[in-house]
């Protein structure tokens, strides 16, 4: 195929075609960047739309170099989803803050505790982040986790990785003004989770996630709970997170669909668990 520098379609339509391709098929972006200068300008922001470190030792330096050479507005406009998910510290907390300092337009943020400390909270508070997935205990000084912090002002979806030691925070869930979806670790006592639903009518879904298939299956004892209560397996959690970030149906969307079906009587009242579903891998698209 010959790649033409001169446009064939009207500029508005041509741009729409390339941007749509970059959004739906992010793996094609490196090729699109080489088509023409105008196409590079249109599609390069999509390269940074979803940032997921995943322990790639080449990714972090490349991203930091890009941040040093591009105006902050580029990253504010381009980046919408960030996850720092390596099991080893491939990036420092200071570098996390450097990235968040320019990626102020993010909508979702996820991280393991290795990349968090109390100083990160103020950087998140400068954004309008709507979806959080993290360890609250690492984001605040010991014993002082605060759900009234400004970083939670716009949060609609909150996934708390902490174990049952933070169950004492659950009565503060109503402090989150925009929250509609909450996910908790499987160590959380079930009665504590159900109490949140009783006391917080604004919640549309409370999802309890398991990481181990054996214990997940053993938890499936038929019982009538609040229709908004759901348990599920998340053994490929960050692939699922990225699926949602790229516009696919993640566990939140599948949970919403489950609740709708149950409300309509299409799922028996005593069932509160989802089927196990394979999650698409996006490893080829990591920056």
Automatic annotation (TrEMBL):
<protein>
    <submittedName>
        <fullName>Uncharacterized protein</fullName>
    </submittedName>
</protein>
């Amino acid at each position: 195929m010959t790649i033409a520098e001169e446009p064939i379609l009207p500029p508005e339509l041509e741009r729409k075609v390339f941007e749509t391709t970059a959004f739906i098929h992010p793996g094609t972006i490196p090729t699109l960047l080489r088509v023409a200068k105008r196409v590079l300008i249109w599609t390069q922001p999509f390269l940074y739309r979803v940032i997921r470190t995943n322990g790639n030792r080449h990714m972090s330096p490349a991203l930091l170099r890009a941040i040093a050479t591009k105006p902050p507005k580029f990253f504010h406009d381009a980046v919408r989803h960030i996850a720092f998910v390596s099991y080893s510290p491939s990036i420092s907390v200071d570098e996390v803050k450097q990235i968040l300092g320019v990626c102020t337009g993010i909508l979702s943020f996820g991280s393991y505790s290795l990349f968090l400390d109390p100083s990160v909270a103020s950087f998140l508070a400068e954004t309008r982040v709507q979806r959080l997935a993290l360890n609250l205990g690492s984001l605040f000084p010991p014993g002082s986790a605060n759900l009234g912090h400004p970083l939670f002002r716009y949060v609609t979806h909150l996934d708390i990785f902490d174990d049952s030691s933070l169950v004492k925070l659950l009565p503060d869930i109503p402090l989150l003004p925009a929250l509609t979806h909450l996910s908790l670790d499987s160590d959380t006592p079930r009665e504590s989770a159900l109490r949140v639903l009783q006391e917080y009518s604004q919640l549309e879904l409370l999802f309890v996630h398991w990481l181990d298939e054996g214990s997940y299956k053993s938890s499936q004892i038929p019982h009538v709970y609040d229709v908004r209560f759901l348990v599920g397996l998340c053994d490929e959690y960050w692939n699922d997170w990225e699926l949602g970030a790229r516009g696919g149906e993640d566990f939140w969307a599948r949970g919403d669909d489950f609740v709708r079906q149950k409300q309509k009587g299409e799922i028996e009242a005593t069932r509160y668990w989802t089927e196990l579903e394979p999650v698409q891998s996006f490893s080829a698209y990591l920056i």
